[in-house]
Every structure is written in C-alpha cells, then in structure tokens.
TrEMBL record:
PANTHER family: CBB3-TYPE CYTOCHROME C OXIDASE SUBUNIT FIXP. Keywords: Electron transport, Heme, Iron, Membrane, Metal-binding, Signal, Transmembrane, Transmembrane helix, Transport. The chain crosses the membrane at residues 162-185, 250-269. Coiled coil: none annotated. Residues 1-32 form the signal peptide. PROSITE patterns: CYTC. It holds the Pfam family Cytochrom_C. Residues 33-126, 310-389 form the Cytochrome c domain. This is C-type cytochrome.
C-alpha cells in the first residue's frame, strides 16, 4: 500500500511539473507569435522613424520597455502629444531631444492588441544579442608610412643643397644692396653741402627721399603749408590749403587708370567674363564633377515621371509602407507636409522629389532613404506622389512652401 501511495505521489508531482512546463512553453509560444505579428505592424508604421539599435528621427527602442514601462509605452504610441501637453517628464524629454518632431497618434489606426504586439516585438528584438561587427583590416604598413611621410614637416636645414645655396645667395645680394645704398648716401650727401636745403632740391623727389631717410615724412604725408583758403569760409569755419598725401594721390591716379582698363576689358571689348558668366561656368563645371558621383546631392538628374499602372501601384505600396506614417495614407500630411496640394518645400519636380526622398531632410525629421530603397523604387514613389496632386483628401494639412 505504501508503495502504491509513493508511486501516486510521484505521478502527481511529475504531472504538475509537466503542466507548469506546458504553460511556460505555451506562454513563450504566444509571446513569440505576438512578436511576429508586432514585427509586421512595426515595419508598416514605425521603421520610417525608429530603429531598435540607433537613433533615427525618433529614439532607438532597444530596452525602452525597461526604461519606461509597458503602460507608458501604450499611452505614448496611442497619442504622444497628449502626454507632452500633459507635462509628462519622459515624453517632454523625448520631444525636446528629437527636434520637437511630433510622433503620429496611432490610437485610431492601431488596436490595443496591435500596440501590445508592437511592444512584444520590441522586447523580443531587445533580448537579441548584439551583432558582432567584423573588424576592418588595418591599412597596409606601406600606405601608413606614406601618409606619415606626407604629413611630416621638412626642417629647413634638410632642404636640398641647391635650394639652401639659392636662399643664401639671395640674402647676400640683399645685404650688399643695402650696404651699397648706405655707402652712397654717406659719400654723396656731404658733397652736396647746404644745397640740400634749397627749396628746389628739397621739393624734388630725390630730395624728399633723402629727407625721408633723415626723418622728414613729407614724401609720405605731403607738405603742410599752413595757408588758409581765402575763399573757403563756412559759418566762420576755414580750412588750410595743404597738400594731399602723395601716397593717396598716387593710389587715386592708379585707380583711375585701373577703372579705364577695367571698363575697356569687360564692357567695351568684352574680353573678360563678368561675375554672372563666371558663376554659370563654375556651376557647369561643378555639375560635371558631381555627375561622376551618383551620391552627390548636386548631381544633375533627368528622370521622367512614371505613368504606367504597375509602377504607380508599386509606388503606392512603398508609400503606404514607408511614408504614410508621417504623410498620411492619402498623402494629406500629418507630421510631414501635405503632398496633394501645389505647394512644395523642396521643389515639386520629379527630380526634386527624388532627391528629397533619397537624401532626406534630417533637420526636419525626414530620413534619407538611399540604401533602404533602390533608385527604381524611389522613382516609383516620387511618381506616385505626383499622381496625388489635386486629390484633396479629407483632413488635408495646410499648404507649406512655395506654389509650383
């Protein structure tokens, strides 16, 4: 009998353990299923602005449930601006940190189950181990040595002997020239005697140079005559009839000659390019250089709008998956601008729209889509956006930008 009771207890205990294990497995399976459903919702509504591991338009979401809690996340996803306006500290902090770009309210477009599934997906992704990034192989030692040699400054004494000899010879010639000039002044000035003080010599250029060496600055400043103009009297205010500084008069005469030459060169004979022409030439050169680099925002593009039904359907699907979160399902504008009117912030031509999508507008919260969408996909989305012109959807946002 005791043996039977012991076997019965053992059976009950094993059954209990099996039941608990089954519940845990069922819970894990349900949680995994929720995460799978949440992934689809996340990719359709959140990937335009969020990533698990990196800040994009909004913050990285890894372990956000541990920092904020599930209840706060539900409220924030349903209506983030309601929390911000209520003064919630965490909501205001996120809003301020990410350039005050409001997150769309998903309370009407997502059910409670959808929101819970998104949170389950975030939890599942947060638990995944970080991917190991392969180390970039070091540059060859030869290249490193070449770069180091290029950046190393050459000492003056390490210059080639020919160059050092040239510098030394030039210095000797300059010193000899100065020495000869000093000797000439010392030799000839005494021979002139008091004649150097004659007005005719002193007013000559040679005399002014001589007296400039001796400390008289008349050559530079002009002569102060201390003579008052007899015919210049303005309410008792008179002026002296002094010379203008010679350097000023010389520059004035040179500027007149330069102005005549400039007018003849640019406006009469038209042998020189004016600023507008130079600008256009430089822009053409820049466009040619940019065209060689497909990732240059200034590269000239000449795409045509796609009108085929299949291309527009593909563009619509891409738009709904990637753009509708910020621009609305009908392009009416939510966080982003209205795409159905005639007003554009960054140009309304298909090439302008293509570049806006490709390179984004990070300052306004628009992420660059190059690397995420191919060139053909971006052109399909751009063409679909242009097909929305004049559709006037309900709840359209006010016009922004310039009318095209």
């Amino acid at each position: 009998r005791s043996k039977t009771m012991s076997s019965l207890k053992k059976m009950i205990r094993n059954s209990s353990l099996a039941f608990v294990a089954g519940l845990l497995l069922m819970g894990n399976a349900a949680q995994a299923q929720d995460a799978i459903a949440g992934k689809a919702i996340f990719e359709g509504n959140c990937t335009a602005c969020h990533s698990i591991d990196a800040d994009v338009v909004g913050p990285a979401l890894k372990d956000v449930h541990k920092r904020r809690g599930d209840e706060w996340l539900v409220k924030f996803i349903k209506n983030s601006q309601e929390l911000v306006q209520a003064g919630d500290k965490d909501a205001v902090e996120v809003y301020e940190k990410f350039n005050k770009v409001p997150m769309p309210a998903f309370g009407t477009s997502l059910s409670d189950e959808d929101v819970a599934n998104v949170i389950a997906f975030i939890k599942a992704e947060s638990e995944k181990p970080a991917e190991v990034v392969a180390e970039v192989p070091a540059a060859p030692a030869a290249d490193a040595n070449a770069e180091a040699a290029a950046e190393t400054e050459v000492a003056f004494m390490d210059l080639p002997p020919v160059l050092l000899f040239t510098f030394a010879l030039a210095a000797v010639i300059i010193l000899l020239t100065i020495l000869v000039l000093v000797m000439m002044f010392r030799l000839f000035v005494p021979m002139l005697g008091d004649s150097i003080y004659d007005e005719d010599f002193r007013s000559s250029f040679a005399g002014r140079v001589l007296f400039l060496v001796r400390g008289d600055a008349t050559l530079v400043t002009g002569k102060a005559k201390n003579e008052i103009h007899s015919n210049h009297d303005f309410d008792g205010i008179q002026e002296y009839d002094n010379d203008l500084p010679p350097w000023w008069k010389a520059m004035f005469y040179v500027s007149i000659v330069f102005a005549v030459g400039y007018m003849l060169h640019y406006h009469v004979f038209k042998t020189g390019a004016l600023q507008t022409e130079e600008y256009e030439v430089e822009m053409q050169e820049a466009a040619l250089i940019a065209a060689k680099n497909v990732d240059d925002p200034n590269a000239v593009t000449n795409y045509e709008v796609l009108t085929e039904a299949t291309a527009l359907e593909s563009g619509k699907a891409l738009f709904n998956t990637n753009c509708a979160a910020c621009h609305g399902q009908d392009g009416q504008g939510t966080v982003g601008p209205n795409l159905t009117d005639e007003y554009w912030l960054h140009g309304g031509d298909v090439n302008d729209i293509f570049k806006t999508i490709k390179y984004g507008v990070p300052a306004k919260g628009m992420v660059p889509w190059q690397g995420k969408l191919t060139k053909d996909q971006i052109l399909e989305v751009s063409s679909y956006i242009l097909s929305l012109q004049g559709t006037n959807p309900a709840g359209a946002k006010e016009p922004q930008g310039e009318k095209m």
